[in-house]
Amino acid sequence: MIPLRDENRRQTVPIVTYAIIVINSVVYLYQLGLGPEVRSFVMLWGLVPLRLTSALEYGTEPMLVPGLTVISSMFMHGSWLHLLGNMWYLWIFGDNIEDRMGRLRFVVFYLLAGAAAAALHYVLNRESRVPSVGASGAIAGVLGAYAFAFPSAKVITLVPLFPFFQIMAIPAVVMLGLWFVYQFLAGFLTSAWSSTGHGVAWWAHIGGFAFGGLTFWLFAAGRPRSRATVV
């Protein structure tokens, strides 16, 4: 299922959401400009679990850079498709969560959701040498918050009903709930059948979504629910 838009009106201009999209895009353009050096850049600033384990447990290198990769990896992507997919979800769902939390709280929430996602990925892949990059974990936190904050909001979704596609208005709790179930099943099957590094950090998505759902009300506490709206 591919979300096209939601019918949930925002009340303010989502400056932080726009800024995150711009930052991710600029970082990816920078990566493209590195040419053959991009691999070294990703290894240095992507989240490599084994490197973090070495810094935490064995003291083989200073903790500063491996620790910073928990944040820096959130703003890096492996391909145009990876970037566009993540930014599309953030564009659709991020504005309403920023609206409910306020800009400063949303920044903190976004970074903590990404950190929570990275933490679960790390715990389950402590010896992996494969760098993890992407905003998926942080954005999963936004999706989790949205599912709990606006469960009945309609999401206009492209649904594959092979051999055709159907555009349907689906409640957010259903659409995002199915998204979460898919991530969980994919993560479980990958963990059960593969002991090597793989291309998608499924458990990071699960960790981010759970963090968003469990902490949304904390970050939205005291915020007004409705004001004059803008489209």
Structural features, described:
By secondary structure, this protein is mostly helical. It has nine helices and three strands. The protein has helices at residues 15-33, 38-45, 49-58, 64-72, 80-101, 103-124, 136-149, 172-193, 202-220; strands at residues 2-6, 154-161, 164-171. The protein has a three-stranded antiparallel β-sheet. β2 and β3 form a beta hairpin. α1 (15-33) runs antiparallel to α5 (80-101), α7 runs antiparallel to α8 and α8 (172-193) packs antiparallel against α9 (202-220). 39% of the residues are buried. Mean pLDDT is 88; it is low at 227-231.
Give the proportion of residues in helices: 55-70%
Please trace the helix and strand order, writing H or E for each element: EHHHHHHHEEHH
Strand arrangement, major sheet: 1-2-3
Largest sheet: 3 strands, antiparallel
Overall number of strands: 3
Q: What's the gyration radius in Å? A: 18 Å
Q: What is the 3D form?
A: globular
* Range of strand content: 5-15%
Low-confidence stretches are 227-231
Number of helical segments with 4 or more residues = 9
Mean pLDDT: 88
Oligomer: single chain
Terminal Cα separation, in Å?
Answer: 24 Å
Structural class label: mainly alpha
Summarize the model shown.
This protein has 231 residues and is mainly alpha-helical.
